[in-house]
Amino acid sequence: MTEVSKARLREVVREGAGNLRALGARALLALTGIAVGTAAVIAILHVGHNARAEAMRQFEALGTDLVSLTPRGDNHDVPDLPPEAMRTLPARRLGLSEAIPIVSGSASLRVGRASLYTALIAADAALYGFLKAPVVAGRRTSDLDGAAPFVVLGADVARDAAASGRPVRIGDPVTVNDQVLTVIGILGPAFRSPLLGVDLNRAAVIPFQAARRVMPDAKITSVAARLAPGADDRATARRVTDYCRLLLRTGSVDVQTARQLIDGLETQMRIYALLLIGIGTTSLVVGGVGVMNVMLMSLMERRREIGLRRAIGARRRDITALFLTEALLLSAVGSLLGTGLGTVAGWIFARASGWPFQPAPLALPLGAGMAATVGLFFGLYPALKAARLDPIAALRAE
């Protein structure tokens, strides 16, 4: 591009910006529509990207080789899985390297004067390592505890109890479902497994054999397992399902792997993102119509100016370039503001959800692309209409 061309472009941009400032409130309304539509799309991109990143972070922290076994019964009657049969699944050469039966339910927990509702989990000691749950005080429950009345409190449960009264100490008695248990440990923050649906942060954990003492229905509600190295997740799921079917008289076992859940999650996120981007695009189209209306109104008010420009030598492409530049400037400023607002909205959502914020890679390119698309699409018609005005008729216009 020559120096003359650059100077001419700068002059067109400067003049277009001045014309937009002269439009005042009308240009501001059109700009607001573009900003809102862009902000909606950009915010959706950031939210979807961060939700997926958080899910992947949890899976990567616990491993993508997780497998969940959930008994499903007929008429809400959950089948009774034999605990020993579940523990010996790895020895059956079905493709699993580890299997931990879990009995879970809800409980009313009373610590001093504090009364809390929490999840109650009965499981083997291997569950702590499976979910990478650290101990900050005391110890974990052990398989050697048998049916002893011991309990380990999750990080959030201990925090809520402390907020309602005094801090929980090792050796304190707590009442769980009218049973007095002794606190032997307190856990630190642990990862929540989306596949297993187990959140040790908001749970009280007791020895597996103590389930019948504390829980009204001590049937296995799930089994946490891992794939053996090199095992195919789908083939393993089929083999485990067939094996469990032989153990049950009624009902079945639903086997789900982390890889299957990740695939399903990505599919759902794509559908969700497309739906919301469609809503945001609708807002953007409304803003684009506002840009077109502003440019058409500007054309009606500047007919004499256009006629004068044509009379002193301006070509049709010069008039087209002027009006198109104004539309592009309006769309660019609106998209820039919308990209900033959408990024702030995505950051707020991530922080409120407790996630680290990661900007979506497509946010900035998409924001710029939407500015150019809206400006060209909705500004081209007014620009061409202005360029086609007859100079003599335009000069006569009032």
Word description of this protein:
With 398 residues, this protein is α+β, with helices and mostly antiparallel strands. The chain has two domains: 3-59 and 263-396, no CATH class; 102-221, no CATH class. 55% of the residues lie in helices and 18% in strands. The chain is built from twelve helices and ten strands. The protein has helices spanning 3-23, 25-62, 83-87, 126-130, 155-164, 211-214, 233-247, 258-301, 303-311, 316-352, 363-387, 391-396; strands at residues 66-72, 96-111, 114-123, 135-138, 150-153, 173-176, 179-187, 203-207, 222-227, 252-257. A six-stranded mixed barrel has the order 2-3-8-5-7-6. A hairpin with a 2-residue loop joins strand 6 (173-176) and strand 7. Helix 2 packs antiparallel against helix 11, helix 8 runs antiparallel to helix 10 and helix 8 packs parallel to helix 11. The longest helix is centred in the last third of the chain and has 44 residues, at 258-301. The radius of gyration is 32 Å and the shape is elongated.
